[in-house]
Each structure stands twice: as C-alpha cells, then as structure tokens.
Write a structure and sequence with these properties.
The structure holds 2 protein chains of 2 kinds. Chain A is an alpha+beta fold. Helices cover 34% and strands 23% of the residues of chain A. Among the domains of chain A are: 1-66 and 201-379, Phosphoribosyl-aminoimidazole Synthetase, Chain A, domain 2 (Alpha-Beta Complex), CATH 3.90.650.10; 389-427 and 573-740, Phosphoribosyl-aminoimidazole Synthetase, Chain A, domain 2 (Alpha-Beta Complex). Chain A has 25 helices and 27 strands. In chain A, the strands form 5 sheets. A 7-stranded mixed beta sheet of chain A has the order 8-10-7-11-9-12-13. A 7-stranded mixed beta sheet of chain A has the order 22-24-21-25-23-26-27, with helices on both faces. In chain A, β2 (81-86) and β3 form a beta hairpin. Chain A is globular, with a radius of gyration of 26 Å. Chain B is an alpha/beta fold. Chain B has one domain (3-231): Rossmann fold (3-Layer(aba) Sandwich). Chain B is 23% helix and 25% strand. Classes of the chains: A alpha+beta, B alpha/beta.
Chain lengths: 740, 232
C-alpha cells in the first residue's frame, strides 16, 4: 500500500471514526477473513451507513404495501419507482432528502439535492418532466433561517432552472424545531416508454465499465456517513462533505444519457449519488450477480494525487456509471463526444462476485459486492422504541380550555399573514415553473399540480404533503393524514391517486422515542396506502435530523403522490363567477387540534392530531371524484392548513371574487372557520347544477352544507364584513416578503 | 417554408418552441446543432431560451461563439429573419445583431411569472397581427432580463420604432410597477434597424397552447408565420 492512511491496517478506533459500530467492524473481518485495509474499511463505512444500507429502517419499510396493478418497478428494485400510466408510457418518480448538506451550505446542499433526484430519474431512461420540493425551516424571524431559506431557494432555482425542468409544486413550513436542521426534500417525475427503461445492473464478462460526465474531485467524501450523524458544532468541519453542483453538466448528461440508451449499447446504468463509485459498482454488480475490476487511476479526476478511497467515495455530481455491451464502445463514445463530456473506460465486468480495485496496477481493495448492499449482507437492526412522554400531554388537551376569541377578524388576519399559510410566491417565483410547456396549473390553479402528457388525453397530477405538526402530535394518525391529504389534493384536481414515494425525515434512530415516532408513522402510512390504493414505490430515509443542542425535528414523513387524470376531468380550485353557490362537503367538527390557529394564535403547542376518520375520507374523495366526472362543480379545494376561512380565501383570490357565507351555530365559530378537521372539501356550483348536486349528495352518506355564495370582491361571514378581496390578497401575497 | 431552431448545449426551451411550431401550428421545423455550419435553407432562424453553456460567464456570451453563429450572423446581415427568445435574445445582443444588453434583474433574483406586454409598433414582422392596444399575458423566466441601452441607442430605438414590446399592467398601462425586472423604459423586446432580427425576453411559446390555459401570445408566432410567408 502506498498511501499514508494505509501504511498500517486500521484499528477499531479508525472504524469508529468512520461511523462503524464494534460489531460491524468484527463482521467485516469475518466477511473478508482478514483485517480490512483503510480503503476497504472506508467502503464498508459508507455502504453500511444508514444512508445507503437502511439498516435501522428496512425491517419496518418492508411492511409497507408495494404492489399494485400499475406498478412496473417496485420499491427497492430500481433507482426510482415506475408506474404504468397507459398508452405505452410509464411515470418514473421519486423523492429524496438533502437535509444535512443544506444545513451547512444551503445553496449547494439544495442544488445538489435537485441534481441527485433528477439523475435517479434519467438513469432509468426517463426524461424528467416535473419537479417538486418540500422545505422546512426554523423560526422565520431568525437571521439564520432567513439565510438558510434564501440559500436553499436560490440553490433549487439555479440548478433546476438551468437544468430546464419545471418546478410545479411544493410546500414550505416554518417551525422552531427546524432552527438548526432544516429539511430539504426534492422530488422529480419523468416519462419513459414502457419497455425502454434501463436497469441498474452489471453482467456479461468482458463488458467495459464506463464513467461519464464530470470529473471526480474531493467533494462529498464520506457524505453518506455525514448524513448518518447528528448535526453538531463540529459539522462545519465537514464542509468538504458537501458536494458542488453544475446544472449545465447535468443538462448535457441528461441529453447524452438518453441518446446513449437509444443506441441499444447499454447493459446497465446507475448515477453516482451517495457513496459515489463504490455504491454504483456494488449495487449494479450485486444485482447482475457478477464481479467488476476497476482501475481507479483511469477515473478522470479534478485534482492530482487523489487517494484510492477518495476516488471510490467521492460524491462529485453529474456522473454516471455505464456498462456497455462489448463491441459497441464507439456508439457510446460518439454520443459523449458530441456533448463534450468525459467518457472513460475504467474497468470491466469479471466473473465471480468480487469488486477488485487497482491503482497503478496494484490491488488496493478486494470486497464482495453482495455483502455491501441492502438486501445482501448489509446489517439489519431492530431498534427498541417507547412512547414519548409528550404524547400523554397531547392527549390531555381540552378544547374547552380555549376561549373563543371575540375578534375573529384578528384571527383571520393572523392566519392570512402567517408564513405557514401566506402565499409562497416569493419562493416559487424564483423557480421556472413553466419550462417544458406542460404545467397546466399555472393559469388554472389546482390542489395538485397537473402536468400535461403532450399528445395524449392524459395528464399526471403531482403533490407533496406532510404536516409535521400532525405527525408530531400523533405519528400514526398524522402520517395517515399526510397520505390522505395527498390523495385528496389529487382527487380535487380531477385525478386518480396511483402511487406514492416517501421521504422519511426523523431524528436519531438510536433514541427510542424517535424510533417510536418512526414505527408509528410507518404503520399509519401503511394503513392509508392500503385504503387509497397507493403503493409505495420507494423514496428515502433521513435519520439524524436533530442537533446536539435542540433535539430532534418534528417527524416528517413527506409524501410525494402521483395521480393520473383524463384531461377532460381536470378541476381547478378557484371560484369562477359571482353568484355561484358555495358548499362544504364533509363533516364540520368542534375540533381545533394541531391547527395553525391553536398553535400560533393561542400558543398551545400540545394537542392531538386533528379529527380524522380514514373511511369517511375515502368516501368524501369518491364523492368529489363523481361530482367532477358528472361536471356538477365549478371548483374544488380541500380544507387544510388554516381551516375553512383560508380555503375560501384561496378559492376567491385568483379571480378577485368575494364570498358571503354563514357559519353553523352547532359548532364553535373558531372551530368552524379555523379548525383543521380532515376530510372536507369546499366546492362552488353554478346555480343551474344545484338541484343535481343536492340530489346526488343526498344519495350518499356524506354530510354537506350550503355555506353561501360567491360574491363580488367583498368577504362576509354571518353578515359581518371581513374586508375586501384586494386587501386580503395584499396581506396574503406579501406577508412572506415583508418578513424577509 | 422552413424554420430552424438552434440547439446550444444548455438550451432548454428548444423543444417547447418546436412543439408549438411543429405540433400545434403544423410547420416544417428542423433542429440546428450549434457545432454545425449549415442553416439547412431555413427561412427563419430561431434562437430558443435556456442556459446556453450554463450562462456561467454572462448570459449568451459563450454561445455567441458557437460555430453556427457565424452562419446566423451572415444570414442576418444578408437580411435573413432571426428571432431570439429569452436566452436567444441575450445571444443576439452578445452577437451584436441586436442593440443593447440584458442585465441582472434589479431584485437580483430569477423571476418566473406571467406578466403583461403591449406591442409598441405594429410595423414589425412579429407584431403585425397584434391588435392596437392589445394586452398580451405571457410568462417571463429569467435572471438576466433587464434590458439596457445607452441614451443614444435608446433614442434611435424609439425614433426608428425598434421597440417591439413594453411591460405593462393587465389594463395596458406602462407603469414602473408593471416592470418586472428593471428594464429601461419597460422594454421587453426590440428589433434591429433592418427589421429582420427580433428579440424578446418573455416566452411566446409558453402562452400559445390552449391546454395550458393561455394562448395570449400565440398572435406573436402567428405574426411571425405570416411574416415569413410574405417574406419568402
């Protein structure tokens, strides 16, 4: 061995520094039948990190439903899930976190998150057509939060805009629990012809192994390990763990990759994400049941004298590993030459199941591929868990302890201007939402983003949803609500929910209370996915979202849902004309639990999740689907954060209309207007359809209430003026910018 | 009649433009690769939006040196029709085919949203079918879209009616509030003195498909088609 760290064989102390447990170090020695050298130990440390191995989550993830009639690639089979959308096309979609890099370097952290998730899509041969993101930050009044928010948004924008795929949806949420550790989850969806996908596999002895795209540098080394630790003051020492993105290279890589696939020369392909070359080598080799010989000195590098472990572990962005059918090398090289991208043969497929790494002709590592990967020999743990003490406090909440405020207009203003509810246009105006000319929600806003599949009568509907507070309040119910809300959003947009991808953001899994949240979130997700017939196609788990000072973030299992719709059924959320009637579908409740109203107006931080009956939810969604199909409603918008008042306002603003409604005396007025009880949808109806609407609803088990009418510009509740739409819109549109 | 859409590395609105011209308007369209020197006998050359060469140096500054630009410049100088949208407009300014320059938006942020524009001359090939005082709702999507020209150039642009579009509000009033990026005199698009080279920051191809709920800017592409028909 020629390199400094490898002059002596590493000890357990080194293993510990790399994040390995004593029993893991022991197991490595057993697998190899000898002591590992430093390069080999580094390989195990990243491949067995939480980020790559899912060692603390896989047992529970396996309980989630993953089969469905339209699923072409199940969770864990490929880089992203694949769903048949008819007409010979499939949608490939996935969500991933980039929380830790974004906490330290928000711009690059978020940018490379966007890059990574898009590579997962096009490495399968699908062309990305839409992106979404789900962001959580701390207290908006803190300078640190403002710095993180501005950096993350600019990072997402600069990368996604240049890459040229529209950002069509997302969510932004602020809470103090995210002060140190923000959450940055990025989702992408692409379209591919069924049967033309590429697999992340490697086989065929003698087939050349190519690395293409950017040169390999020292950025992001041990990034996967870093993602598997708590954030501490020492974390800034890990800045080199944060990768640097180049969206221009990514755009070229996209075009070149799709062209190369079209040549028919590709056996298998995988992007280089977490844990770099070693991850792609081992996962592809394990899948194809072959070995691989790699000459690390043939990898194009950005700097001289990189050590073997650095080349193997580097998380430099915009790279792909491609196994090419021997004899078809020129087809591949011509494409990369056209796009002026690096394209180098670094090795070949060999017999057996080992990965052999050479540097200047000398073997520097020899490891079996299978033992490194999830589903192979990577460790699997069952962690203990126990109910956190705060759950009992939440359950003890009594609505009668909250007095109904005299001035409900003050509550309305508080919510309209609250950063969790107010317009996020300051954020999304910085994203190109229209490139690709597929975003059907720009001019007709809808609860889920509708993305046109050009040349067909179909569109897809996409949404990301999770209310972290509901999940904290009650992980099982809160997560079921996240799935239900995603499905509701798709249904209100005229779609049929198809499948989900998830991004599971939790604290340290070795904390039994955090793990209890995780276990119950998975249970709630499994239940809801079975009810709504939306199997889980994959995603990622991000543990260790906590700081050493402030504890874990709110558990946040972000749900990215894909729906399918016939374009003729598309529905928008805004009122169309004065005089239309406004109805509430679903049951009103004396419930303000976990609402933004209770949390930030009354400052009550402990209460249960909002009222939720999953079977009722399903019925409500079926009713809304039927109403849309029968063309009985002019708009549909679900009641969510901020309650009924905010829903009405959001429906009124796009066309500068007003509303005149009456509350129901059977309920507390604050709960009626601002409570967040689930399974409710506000619809508007042209008067000529009212009879048919009432007839239909009367034939179902679903409660419905005539709230009032759409009016010209003025907002009236129980005959009391809540101002005019222009004033409300000014508050809603500009609140976020005023806070920044 | 044939349209050529130039593809630079990093172009990302090329296929959007081709979709409108080819699939919706049923025109003959070819892709022109930036490394080539052949304009394939096209009657009009379109430089699409995007981030050519990543726009790392300055928007359009590198694309202007792509091999095909030699031919585009020669074509334009002989009176050939050239139309640049967004990044294409930036490339045309960098190439000296259009006067002025595109600076960073005054808020130093990328801005993507619907804005309104109004034609300032109806005597240009891309505005000929627009009705007088018609307000067009059309998206912008750029970080460097603030049009700038020095006083003398500006004077000439106005005198020669080379200003194609100005940003306005929904009612057609040209106001400081309706200027999204700080462009001088609200200028959203210009043409050259010979009136054969056109550039605009807003994206007409994004407001031309009924499925997207806004076809307000299709009149620009229709005018262009009409112009080419007359021209050839």
């Amino acid at each position: 061995m020629t390199t400094a760290p490898e002059t002596t064989l590493p000890t357990y102390e080194t293993a510990k520094k790399l994040g390995l447990l004593p029993e893991e170090f022991q197991r490595i020695k057993e697998i190899l039948g000898r002591d590992p050298n430093f390069t080999e130990l580094s390989i195990f440390s990243v491949m067995w990190s939480e980020h790559c191995s899912y060692k603390n989550s896989i047992t529970w993830l396996k309980t989630l439903p993953k089969k469905g009639p339209h699923i072409l690639a199940e969770a864990g089979e490929e880089n992203a899930g694949l769903v048949d959308i008819g007409g010979g096309l499939a949608c490939c979609f996935k969500i991933e976190s980039h929380n830790h890099p974004s906490a330290l370097e928000p711009y690059q952290g978020a940018a490379t998150g966007v890059g990574g998730i898009n590579r997962d899509i096009f490495t399968m041969g699908a062309r990305p057509i839409a992106q979404l993101n789900s962001l959580r930050f701390g207290n908006i009044n803190s300078e640190k939060t403002k710095w993180l928010l501005k950096g993350v948004v600019k990072g997402i924008g600069d990368y996604g805009n240049a890459f040229g795929i529209p950002t069509v949806g997302g969510e932004v949420f602020f809470d103090e629990c995210f002060n140190i550790n923000p959450l940055v989850n990025a989702m992408s969806a692409g379209i591919v012809e069924v049967g033309k996908t590429v697999s992340a596999t490697s086989y065929g002895v003698g087939n050349p192994v190519y690395i293409v795209g950017s040169a390999t540098g020292k950025d992001g080394i041990h990034g996967a390990t870093f993602a598997s630790e708590d954030i501490s003051a020492a974390s800034t020492d890990k800045l080199p763990s944060v990768q640097v993105g180049d969206p221009f290279q990514e755009k070229l890589l996209l075009e070149a990759t799709l062209e190369v696939i079209a040549t028919g020369a590709v056996i298998g392909m995988q992007d280089m994400g977490a844990a770099g070359i070693i991850c792609s080598n081992s996962e592809m080799s394990a899948k194809g049941k072959h070995g691989m010989r790699i000459d690390l000195d043939k990898v194009p590098t950005r700097q001289a004298n990189m050590q073997p472990f650095e080349i193997l572990l580097s998380e430099s962005q915009e790279r792909m590993l491609i196994i090419v059918e021997k004899g078809k090398e020129k087809l591949v090289e011509d494409v990369f030459d056209k796009w002026d991208l690096n394209c180098a043969i670094i090795g070949e497929v060999i017999e057996g199941d080992h990965l052999h790494y050479f540097m200047h002709g000398e073997m520097v590592a020899d490891v079996p591929a299978d033992v490194l990967v999830l589903g192979g020999g990577a460790p699997i743990y069952e962690r203990e868990y126990k109910e956190p003490a705060y759950i009992a406090i939440n359950k003890a909440f009594d609505i009668d302890s909250i007095k109904i405020p005299k001035d409900l207009k003050a509550v309305a203003k508080h919510l309209t201007t609250h950063p969790n509810i107010a317009s996020k246009h300051w954020v999304y105006d910085q994203y190109d939402s229209m490139v690709g000319t597929v975003n059907m929600s720009t001019n007709n806003p809808s609860d889920a983003a509708i993305v046109n599949i050009k040349g067909t009568d179909k569109a897809i509907a996409l949404t990301v949803d999770c209310n972290s507070r509901y999940v904290y309040a009650d992980p099982e119910t809160g997560t079921a609500i996240a799935v239900a809300e995603a499905a509701r959003n798709i249904v209100c947009a005229g779609g049929e929910p198809c499948a989900i991808t998830n991004c599971l953001n939790f604290g340290n899994p070795y904390n039994p209370e955090v793990y209890w949240q995780f276990v119950h979130a998975i249970k709630g997700m499994g239940t809801a996915c079975r009810i709504f017939l939306t199997p889980v196609t994959g995603g990622n788990v991000s543990f260790y979202n906590q700081s050493t000072d402030e504890g874990p973030v709110y558990p946040t299992p972000t749900i990215g849902m894909l729906g399918l719709l016939d374009k003729e059924n598309r529905m928008s959320l805004h009122f169309k004309q004065a005089g239309d009637l406004i109805f509430l579908i679903g049951e009103s409740k004396d419930d303000i639990a976990s609402s933004e109203y209770l949390f930030s107006f009354h400052n009550i931080k402990h209460s249960p999740a909002p009222y939720f009956d999953i079977n009722k939810e399903l019925e409500v969604q079926q009713v809304v689907k039927e109403l849309i199909k029968e063309k009985l409603i002019a708009s549909a918008h679900d009641v969510s954060d901020g309650g009924l008042y905010i829903t009405l306002l959001e429906s009124a603003m796009p066309n500068n209309l007003g509303f005149d409604i009456d509350t129901d005396e059977d309920f507390r007025k604050d709960a009626f207007l601002f409570g967040e009880a689930q399974s409710r949808v506000v619809v508007s109806i042209n008067p000529e359809n009212v009879d048919a609407f009432v007839d239909y609803l009367s034939s179902t088990n679903i409660e419905f209430t005539n709230l009032g009418i759409v009016s010209d510009t003025l907002l009236f509740i129980d005959g009391e003026s809540f101002g005019n739409i222009a004033a409300a819109k000014d508050l809603y549109d500009n609140a976020l910018e005023r806070l920044l | 009649m044939k349209f050529g859409v130039v593809i630079f590395p990093g172009s990302n609105c090329d296929q959007d433009m081709i979709y409108v011209l080819k699939d919706l308007m049923e025109l003959d369209v070819v892709e022109l690769w930036h490394k080539d020197h052949d304009l394939q006998n096209c009657d009009m050359i379109i430089l699409p939006g995007g981030f050519s060469f990543g726009d790392y140096l300055r928007s359009g500054a590198i694309a202007r040196f792509s091999p095909i630009m030699e031919n585009v410049i020669e074509f334009a100088n002989k009176g050939g029709l050239v139309f640049g949208v967004c990044n294409g407009f930036q490339v045309l300014c960098e190439a000296g085919l259009l006067p002025g320059a595109l600076l960073h938006n005054t808020n130093h942020k990328f801005i993507c949203k619907n804005v309104h524009i109004k034609a300032q001359t109806y005597d240009a090939l891309v505005t000929s079918m627009i009705e007088h005082n018609q307000v067009i709702k059309v998206p912008i999507a750029h970080g460097e879209g603030s049009y700038y020209a020095d006083e003398a150039t500006l004077k000439k642009l106005n005198e020669n009616k080379q200003v194609l579009f100005r940003y306005c509000d929904a009612d057609g009033n040209i106001t400081p509030e309706s200027n999204p990026n700080g462009a001088i005199e609200n200028i959203a698009g210009v043409c050259n003195e010979g009136r054969n080279v056109f550039g605009m920051m807003p994206h007409p191809e994004r407001a031309s498909d009924a499925e997207l709920g806004n076809t307000s800017a299709k009149v620009i592409l229709d005018s262009m088609l009409n112009a080419v028909l007359k021209f050839i």
